[in-house]
């Protein structure tokens, strides 16, 4: 007698995954995140910051003209370090990245197509291969974002659901073949410390992350890069966010303008008093060669009041710092509708991180999305979660466009997944193969770059030209990573270095990579050049 089993029930994006059989019960933080038992809170990362100005990086706090010259000498910088904003999305659990989402091919690049069975492992049935067209005569390969996706990719559908056509036209990307272990917290995937070492910084926090971990995310950071002096700031409630900027009781008693005026007046009076006390050593006298006690006191007093006035001027009204009220993020003309935003904690988390990073208040941020250990749940569960992840990616890219800022968006997952030949014929399964098991050999990561000046151009040097720079490393015909195809293919630490190298290259700074990373395992300058996807998109300080 043949027993026909009903396909697994489709899980909503926020429902936890309860694996049977090979998977142990979740006991660690990572287990709970990857299976979706712990997901996005409503206010996970800096949810009430950062929109006093139309473009905060272009803004200057409105101190009086006679005090503006003290801003630089006191180390006050509204704009952060002036590097390209960087956000990474950590899909906890081992999500599908390629084939059914981003395309990856053989030695010739993304369109050096794999075998039918190879794409089957990556979740695609024989009538949905990237080399084919659908019933309407449309290709299953979509290059609207520069980087080639499968035309029915859930990531792609989510991104295009959030970005304007003009934004899509200014995006390009690259995919990296990269094997990594399944179901372990020991994958050092997170690149944020490397991005900091490359120069990224913020005016309120250097790094931020949605998890209280040394990396700020689910996956750990390479041990050799960790610098706990800039450990990512974790914020999970509004009071923690407003606590980043303490404006004192005076700001609650007076208006913002009046508070700033009082602090400016105190600074001027203090400065006059000190000139009387020490008339023989005028402030900022370039001829002095020693530092006196009076000078130390002067600097503390001067910079203390100037910085306090600056903080009150920028952050004195807490309601102006709230992304909930940013019309570019939420509302009739926003990236999210009010119903979407109020109903989905992952959207609110994403909004908070992108607001902080793209405003220059943090140099880099990690958004961890949980529940991506979705094999054994049919195909529809994974499709819905990939779709939401794509919408979070698209939100970051579209917000960068609305801010007029470039953005490097990096997407990775711990481990990967493979499919069997069983089709999920449900509406959300979309006629694709069901995900059945973990499979570290199908792993990959990718990044997208938005440039306000137009689509980033690929490096064209070397064999196969741009195609081999858009795809770093390659897959075998059977749908698995060719581990000898690049330094990143079988070493997650070198995957992180490859991502950081590409970040530096966007600034034209890859030549100084070995100075910042003297123990790099990426080999010679010639090899490193082959791992760079794009020509520089900025020169000098941005913002």
Oligomer: single chain
- Overall shape: it is globular
Radius of gyration: 25 Å
Strand order of the largest sheet: 5-6-1-7-10-4-11
Put simply, the count of helices is 18
Residue runs with pLDDT of under 50 for 5 or more positions: 39-61, 235-242, 249-254
Structural class: alpha/beta
Kindly state the number of beta strands: 11
Measured between the Cα atoms of the first and last residue, the distance is: 70 Å
Strand fraction: 5-15%
* Integer tally of domains: 2
The SSE order reads: HHHEHEEHHEHEHHHHHHEHEEEEHEHHH
Major sheet summary line = 7 strands, mixed
Task: Please give a structural write-up.
By secondary structure, the chain is α/β, with parallel strands linked by helices. The protein has two domains: 29-58 and 79-243 and 320-530, no CATH class; 246-315. Helix content is 31%, strand content 12%. The protein contains 18 helices and eleven strands. It has helices at residues 29-34, 65-68, 70-73, 116-121, 154-162, 165-168, 192-197, 238-242, 250-253, 256-277, 293-315, 338-343, 345-358, 380-403, 466-470, 492-506, 513-516, 525-530; strands at residues 86-91, 141-145, 147-150, 171-177, 205-209, 362-369, 407-413, 417-424, 432-438, 444-450, 471-472. Strands 5-6-1-7-10-4-11 form a seven-stranded mixed β-sheet, with helices on both faces. It has a two-stranded antiparallel sheet with strand order 2-3. Strands 8-9 form a two-stranded antiparallel ribbon. A hairpin with a 1-residue loop joins β2 (141-145) and β3. It is globular, with a radius of gyration of 25 Å.
């Amino acid at each position: 007698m043949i027993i026909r089993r009903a396909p697994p029930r489709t899980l909503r994006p926020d429902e936890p995954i309860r694996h049977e059989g090979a998977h142990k019960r979740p006991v660690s933080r990572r287990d709970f995140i990857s299976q979706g038992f712990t997901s996005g809170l409503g206010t996970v990362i800096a949810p009430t910051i950062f929109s006093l100005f139309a473009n905060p990086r272009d803004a200057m706090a409105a101190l009086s003209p006679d005090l503006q010259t003290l801003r630089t000498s006191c180390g006050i910088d509204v704009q952060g370090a002036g590097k390209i904003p960087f956000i990474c999305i950590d899909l906890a659990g081992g999500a599908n990245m390629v084939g059914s989402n981003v395309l990856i091919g053989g030695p010739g690049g993304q369109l050096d197509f794999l075998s039918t069975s190879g794409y089957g492992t990556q979740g695609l049935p024989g009538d949905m291969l990237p080399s084919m067209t659908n019933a309407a005569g449309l290709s299953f390969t979509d290059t609207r974002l520069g980087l080639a996706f499968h035309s029915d990719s859930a990531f792609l559908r989510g991104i295009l659901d959030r970005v304007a056509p003009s934004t899509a036209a200014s995006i390009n990307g690259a995919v990296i073949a990269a094997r990594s272990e399944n179901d372990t917290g020991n994958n050092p995937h997170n690149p944020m410390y490397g991005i900091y070492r490359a120069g990224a910084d913020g005016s309120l926090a250097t790094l931020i992350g949605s998890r209280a971990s040394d990396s700020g995310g689910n996956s750990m950071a390479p041990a050799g890069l960790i610098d706990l002096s800039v450990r990512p700031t974790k914020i999970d409630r509004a009071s923690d966010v407003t606590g980043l900027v303490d404006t004192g009781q005076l700001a609650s008693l007076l208006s913002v303008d009046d508070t700033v005026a009082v602090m400016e007046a105190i600074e001027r009076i203090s400065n006059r008093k000190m000139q009387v006390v020490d008339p023989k050593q005028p402030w900022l006298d370039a001829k002095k060669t020693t530092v006196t006690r009076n000078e130390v006191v002067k600097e503390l007093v001067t910079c203390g009041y100037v910085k306090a006035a600056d903080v009150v001027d920028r952050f004195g009204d807490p309601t102006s710092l709230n992304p909930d009220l940013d019309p570019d993020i939420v509302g009739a003309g926003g990236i999210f509708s009010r119903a979407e935003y109020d109903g989905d904690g992952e959207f609110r988390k994403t909004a908070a991180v992108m607001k902080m990073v793209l405003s220059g208040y943090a140099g880099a941020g990690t958004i961890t999305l949980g529940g991506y250990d979705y094999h054994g749940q049919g195909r529809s569960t994974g499709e819905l979660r990939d779709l939401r992840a794509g919408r979070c990616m698209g939100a970051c890219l579209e917000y960068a466009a609305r801010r007029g800022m470039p953005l490097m968006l990096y997407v990775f997952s711990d481990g990967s997944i493979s499919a069997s030949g069983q089709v999920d014929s449900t509406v959300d399964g979309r006629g694709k193969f069901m995900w059945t098991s973990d499979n570290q050999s199908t792993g990959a990561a990718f990044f997208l770059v938005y440039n306000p000046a137009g689509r980033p151009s690929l490096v064209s040097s070397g064999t196969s030209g741009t195609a081999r720079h858009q795809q770093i490393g390659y897959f075998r015909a059977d749908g698995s990573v060719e581990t000898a195809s690049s330094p990143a293919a079988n070493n997650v630490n070198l995957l992180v270095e490859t991502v950081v190298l590409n970040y530096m290259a966007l600034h034209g700074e890859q030549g100084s990579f070995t100075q910042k990373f003297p123990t790099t395992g990426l080999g010679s300058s010639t090899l490193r050049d082959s791992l760079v996807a794009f020509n520089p998109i900025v020169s000098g300080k941005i913002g």
